[in-house]
Amino acid sequence: MLIFISPFNGFAEQNVRIHGFVSQGYLKSSSNNFLAETDKGTFQYNDMGLNFQYFTGDKVSIGAQLGARDLGDVGNDKVGVNWVYGDYKWRDWLGFRAGIMKASSTLYGENRDVDSLHTWIIMPQSLYNEQQRDASQGLKGISLYGNIDMASMGMLKYDLRMADLQVGLDSGTAQTIIASGGVSSVTDISFDTLYAWSLRWKAPIDGLQVGADGAMTGGLFQAISPNPYYDPTNPLFGPETLNISIDTKEVLSTSYSLEYVYRDLILTTEWSISDQKVAYYVTGTPPGSYTKTKATSYYFSASYRFLDWLEMGTYYSKSVADDDERGPDNELKDICLTTRFDITDNMTFKLEAHSMKGTYGVSAGDDGSLDDSWNLFGAKVSYNF
Amino acid sequence: MNMKHSFKTIILSLFVFGLISPLWAMAEDVIVIANKSVPQSSLDADIVKKIYVGDISIWPDNTTVVVTIMDKSDFHEDFLTKYVSKSKSQFKATWKNIMFSGKGPYPKQFDNVDDLIKFVTNTTGAIGYVNASASPADVIVLK
């Protein structure tokens, strides 16, 4: 029995591979609270995972990853299954996966939990909403995928998925619903079947890749909301709290990406358009009218590796809640500057600064105020094997 | 006068040698080798590139590609420049992405040319790269 231990072979016995990662971050904002209690500074920002893969040698593989994360009130280091699936690759152009999968409708989302795979500490929130990361991972279903070699026209990669979203009541998605106002707690979350697709075209031009992704689903959230008409002296105005339903339907999210890599320079832009219809109503009553919303978000980024151990990058990101409702409380603009140090092949350290404008997805600071213009500082160390 | 001339000659020689030394080091060629189970016609530069960026993992005869690397060697960067068009860090990131998403194993790493040649010789579907001076036998070589 041979056990191979090397930086990236992890622990390997013949066709069994074990890999892992752990990252610990620190966030501090000049005002407001963002993602966690950043106003006073927080270490509640970490990720960890251990994955196991077995390759049978006849094009079948089985793998699983256990992981935990902490981001303020989200995760709290509770260990869970990130993904576990079987994979049969019949040909390079056709494979089949089934199980609980990581999936992403963005260029870099599939491994966003592995800090050492990114330049940034906080990925552009316009497309990589950190609080709602759980909605794009742990998809339970099936996937057809492949790489189609188009010879002089490059390579076309595709991934078609049909799955159920696994989003719990302690998830970031639930926290986002509460933070959006109007509800004090979420009591149930259910999603329609998700249909998603990813296309990546590696163009004949060296380093150029174009992508298009999409996802369709709907969701029904049950929540508790304070009754605005409640009067303890008059029962006619109803109980102190109400059971509320939030019904989102015809949710269609599309994103487009462009990446160009030239030696140690990486230039990327991604755009996301999200359409949905939403209705809020007291549970047990008819939904009433649905409000249609559309939100377009995007970012531009550039990174350059100066030395084997030094990489720097910058991005401009704009997150929008609703294209028809502009203003600082419905937007978040972010200019980021990052420096990444590769201490060893397996360890990285990053320092990052953000200049923010807007308060979309942002909570009031410890003094109760919500500032339109504020800054965020981050530091993170990560290890992987 | 002669000593002054000799001194200048020595300095000039050292300078010229210093210039050509890195060129000499860069001039060592890298060759791609594969197990004899791989048809010679399947081994071209385009396919090698696609294998080493993870886009191809099955040979035309439906056997699995077994990828090997010598990422600590002097010629690893030359190989990446010549065949893969990626920097060392980008190459590493590409395979770590594949590895951490469960879509494939990280290439098998070797520190010793002889060990790599032995592995490629004895493993169906294996592919690797070595310095040309290694002159491996019992493998097919990218022409």
Give an overview in words.
The complex is a heterodimer of chains A (385) and B (143). Chain A is mainly beta. Chain A has a single domain, classed as Beta Barrel (Porin), CATH 2.40.160. Chain A is 2% helix and 59% strand. Chain A has one helix and 19 strands. In chain A, strands 3-4-5-6-7-8-9-11-12-13-14-15-16-17-18-19 form a 16-stranded antiparallel beta barrel. Chain A is globular and about 75 Å long. The model of chain A is unreliable at 1-7 (pLDDT under 50). By secondary structure, chain B is an alpha/beta fold. Chain B has a single domain (29-141), classed as Periplasmic binding protein-like II (D-Maltodextrin-Binding Protein, domain 2, 3-Layer(aba) Sandwich), CATH 3.40.190. Chain B has five helices and five strands; from the N terminus they run αβαβααβαββ. Chain B has helices at 2-27, 45-52, 76-84, 88-100, 113-122; strands spanning 30-34, 66-69, 108-109, 126-131, 140-141. Chain B has a five-stranded mixed beta sheet with strand order 3-2-4-1-5, sandwiched between helices. The longest helix of chain B has 26 residues, at 2-27. Chain B is globular, with a radius of gyration of 20 Å.
| SS strand fraction of chain B | 5-15%
DSSP strand count of chain A: 19
Assign the CATH architecture of chain A: Beta Barrel
What portion of the residues of chain A fall into strands of 2 or more residues?
over 45%
The 3D shape of chain A can be described as: globular
CATH class of chain B: Alpha Beta
Largest interface: A-B, 48 and 28 residues
CATH superfamily of chain B: Periplasmic binding protein-like II
How many strands of chain B? 5
**Helix count from the secondary structure assignment of chain B:** 5
Unreliable runs of chain A, pLDDT <50, ≥5 residues? 1-7
Oligomer: heterodimer
Largest sheet of chain A: 16 strands, antiparallel, barrel
Which structural category fits the helices and strands of chain A? mainly beta
Give the end-to-end Cα distance of chain A, rounded to a whole number of Å: 21 Å
Largest sheet of chain B, in brief, is: 5 strands, mixed
Order of helices and strands of chain A: EEEEEEEEEHEEEEEEEEEE
Q: Remind me, CATH topology of chain B?
A: D-Maltodextrin-Binding Protein, domain 2
